[in-house]
Specification:
Blueprint: E1 3-12, E2 15-25, E3 30-34, H1 41-48, E4 56-61, E5 64-66, H2 71-76, E6 79-82, H3 94-99, E7 105-106, E8 109-110, H4 112-126, H5 141-153, E9 159-163, H6 171-186, E10 190-195, H7 198-204, E11 207-212, E12 215-220, H8 226-234, E13 252-262, E14 268-278, E15 281-286, H9 293-301, E16 308-313, E17 316-317, H10 323-328, E18 331-334, H11 338-342, H12 349-352, E19 364-365, E20 368-369, H13 371-384, H14 401-412, E21 419-423, H15 431-446, E22 450-454, H16 458-464, E23 467-472, E24 475-481, H17 486-492, H18 498-507, H19 514-524, E25 533-534
Helix pairs in contact: 17-18
Length: about 550
Amino acid sequence: MRLELRGITKRFGTFTANDGIDMVVEPGEIHAILGENGAGKSTLMNTLYGLYEPDAGEIVIDGAPVVFAGPGDAMRAGIGMVHQHFMLVPVFTVAENIVLGQEPVSGGLIDLKRARAIVRETSEMLGFAIDPDALVGDLPVGVQQRVEIVKALSRNAKLLILDEPTAVLTPQETDELIEIMRRLAAAGTSILFITHKLREIRAVSDAITIIRLGKVVGTASPTATETELASLMVGRSVSLGVAKEPSRPGEPVLEIVDLVVRDGNGVPVVNDVSFTVASGEILAVAGVQGNGQTELTEAILGVTKPASGSILLRGAPIESMGVRDRLDAGLAYVPEDRSTDGIVGEFSIVENLVLDRLGAPPVSRGGALDMRYLRENAEQRVAEFDVRTTSIDRPVGTLSGGNQQKVVLARELSKPLSLLVASQPTRGVDVGSIEFLHDRIVSERDKGAAVVIVSTELDEVLALGDRIAVMCGGELVGIVPGGESRDVLGLMMTGIGPEEARQRAAEHHTVLGDADLAAEQEHENEPGHVAVVTDVHDVEENR
């Protein structure tokens, strides 16, 4: 299938999410769309898939303009989509999910024998081994993603849209997905690969289109370096590395001893976890999301009560302390879901910057808020953290996700602290802001704070962690030095201990492993190296 987008524009009220986008995807091509969170990538794909109707422009398939009234039309035209959040029914079997909405019928009943045959035929074509009778909810996320791909291809998809497909995968599962993409492309399937992960784009794409603020600002070759691609994403030069000196750990600040946290059904979601974080060091916690990291950080903050075990802050047990007392004791906390737990969207930037200090000087004096202090504080923090806004009185919920995150970080890092706990600290933040926030986190470490970072982004874990703890199934698989290889960490994320992971990694590198990183560094250092980049336009940044 040859796909052409001509001048696609999509507006939501006064906001233009896609602005005159032109793009061509050739048959059998893996075409990557690169852009920051909020750049308009998913809106464009939802328009292509029939979920949105474009306000202007047209979609052309094999030379003929098409109009989609919904996803059904897109599927009938040969377009399939694997969403970032899988559209599967957990209590249904693989076969039931595959045929859902297009069930084969025999004698007035769903023909499950035919459904199973469809699964086997498509799976074998792709080289998968998927049990048609397995419950989807019992399958690992990597296998669930394969089910989504089988579902799309069983409906004769000639163009497959993969929207942030590696967000929930280990490096090894990402490696497998890349091989699947290559096989599909070799067989003639066109693939639109939507991501913000530069390493993956360079590993698999044939062509790259860069979108910034809803517009196509350029195209690039996969031979372009990560630094060059990142600069195109944000419109200026950025550094992808984190400049930091070796850590100088001091006295223990946070001690976790035999911690157990249970969910509402009594099932351990944090199981017998123990570790220590000293002043002047960053412990990065790695793992696929949903392996106990959230519950661990919530137990440290005090919003979740442990079933057993101890949490000590500078040697003093804090299990019986409330959240307020822990914050007053020097704990700063950045939640993984800022919109739910980090901000009050209807409140102004001024108010959100002091949410955790209301009722105490200098925010309040004599029982009343000191508005002069609040405004001076807001002006200072907005400037210091480069929060892009027209006014400090603007409701924080109207800011972009990246700027909301800057407000949360500004609040938490603008007070004396002993311990910083940050979950997904740069989720939804543009590349340029990530650079700034990473530097601030390292600065807190260098001032003597203990830092715990939880991130599903392996690049972030490797960039920040002086030591790296890996969690799987609610348990601590192991703690390794910050310089550990991606391959070892990926294997540990599946539950394999450090020593065995090192042995296995020595025998095999992932597609996105250290060999690629070394090759890229060598490539960047070649005299006269330039990326193949075309049609790059200056676009004013207003994030």
